[in-house]
Amino acid sequence: MLHETQIEKVLDEYAIDDSGTIKKIKMHIEAFKHSPIYTTICGTKEKFCEFPIETKTVCGSINLLYYDEKKKEWGVVDFKTGCIRDHSVQLEKYVQVLQENGFQSVRSEIVKI
Length: 113
Description:
alpha+beta; 4 helices; 40% helix; 29% strand; globular
């Protein structure tokens, strides 16, 4: 799913050229690629990056929305870097909006990268 050329493109796009920073980013990506969630995501057919959510009370985008065929449930993934604050309220709102719009069995998780 994540190829070296894609990673290089993003590093170039954001003008990241410090070798220490690049090494750290690549280390986090490699760790993520060995995680259970990555394996699940790679095996799904339905996945959406930056899925927009906009209601009267909620406006934002879900970093990754995917359907896990094995568990028969939707997954909401919020990727975070650095210190992870409590984002449970944000994720709960995303799940609520999805359920109100017909998505059944939705779970959420934060993935530190």
